[in-house]
């Protein structure tokens, strides 16, 4: 039996994790500051880097052009971030598994082509055609997931093959002309076009949406607090929930006021917001969402816990395909046609960039669907600023690439810090 050398200093003990809700209840404001410092030291930066970056972007471009921080520019950003943002929502699910889906750009273009052929060429009811289109996207994603999960082909290879194959299928459907014009006065396209606003652009529409959003948060947050209190487990104090409600109300009603200064809240933005709320609930409040995080964090531990890893993988890729189709329909509504622009490879790159820039880790197990919103705000803010300054698209891609690289570096350093702190 080996003896303990008294001259050797034992390593410092790693302090047990502290539940922030207990800390806040015991220490009040000091508890918030302590928890914030603990997170920073532990590498848990959350959305802080992207929010700081977004503020810097707005300041820089507003100095260059006084018209940048205007309601007209924010209306532009709010509308044009939706199409690729929907693609990014689906990619967040895939990235949470530590995988990638390279097919979403082609699937989005194919979805627009399927919808155009069914509704325009064959005269099918546009709403029914939309349902078939969305189911087609989900089925394609499930096929990719099946080949990956059951046969064992790497997701990169499966979706790369899909990227090329579905692109060819789209071109075949569109025919020799390569484009099919879509009417924007009826069916889903009526609500996805640039001239479609909630309640016809009525000023009350934006405030009604803001009020509904705040009310939904209050109902969810205080309901969760009540359930946790009854179960005898830590819960967020009422003062914190009230503060969060005030901040959300300021942001929601402020956004409504800015958009109402122009034409109102675009219906496409309403769709995007609903998709974010629903998918966030699925990931954060359901058993399925916890399984997705578990598989992304540790596959072997998930298997031993009885989670069907194959099922999670297949359904996640199906969700990605569904949102690729929904995003494709939105992009088609923006340009009023189904053509090759819907499957532009840049859409795929920007959708991946948005998820990563917004805070979703490429290594799996960490992220949120709100990353799609934050990332697209960054990308479209850069795009709008460069457009106002009259700079070429090449500059936009270089800047976006630099921002993406910075986001991945921050993520890597954050994970390294968390490992050294014993939290990853």
TrEMBL record:
The keyword Cell membrane applies. It is a multi-pass membrane protein. It comes from the Bacteria. Pfam families: BPD_transp_2. It is found in: Cell membrane. The chain crosses the membrane at residues 45-64, 76-97, 104-121, 127-148, 155-175, 195-220, 241-259, 265-283, 312-335, 347-365, 372-389, 395-413. Keywords: Cell inner membrane, Cell membrane, Membrane, Sugar transport, Transmembrane, Transmembrane helix, Transport. Part of the binding-protein-dependent transport system for D-xylose. Probably responsible for the translocation of the substrate across the membrane. This is Xylose transport system permease protein XylH. It comes from Streptacidiphilus cavernicola.
